[in-house]
Amino acid sequence: MTVKQFFKSQAFKCIIVLLVIALIAGGLLAILNDVLYVTEEERTMRAIEKVYGEEMRYEELSFEADKLSNDYGTLSKVYLLENGNYLVQATGGNGYKGGTITVWVVLTVKDGAFNGIEKVVLESYEKQTLMSKLTYDVYSAHNDEITGDVYFTTGGDGIKVLISGATLSTNALNNAVDCALQFAREVLFAKEAA
Known about the structure:
Radius of gyration: 24 Å
Strand content: 25-35%
Number of strands: 8
């Protein structure tokens, strides 16, 4: 096959068509990436609106990595809100089939001291196929003033027990909330105990 025959062949036409499609798709992807890009600040404001239903000023707090994890899970974000409460994003593990759940937890402050949990809102979950079946009541069961060393688990002595069962396991949810509780006690308000 000569060069002239190659340029007239069906294979060359296919290559040109594919090249044009790739260039157009790449250009559209670049344009849409810029148009649809969400800044970190906008993501934070969306999370606050998801929890409170309105925008609110906040300050992002940073901590050493070892302070953001404990026996119950890990925290990925910590914000001090303009109303004096803390909004934390916590992920709890050991759920059904080793699944995890990530929630936003509002830690309330009263007279400069940790007071309890105002709200727990679902962010995402992995391998927890039944989490979508949990009702608002399961999340709101965590909303309470917290005194002493109360933790939310599915069992144990001297511990607040929440809904549990083989079909609707709340273990990962409880661990996420307990992760936020332990962080509040041992990091945010540790100076009070000292």
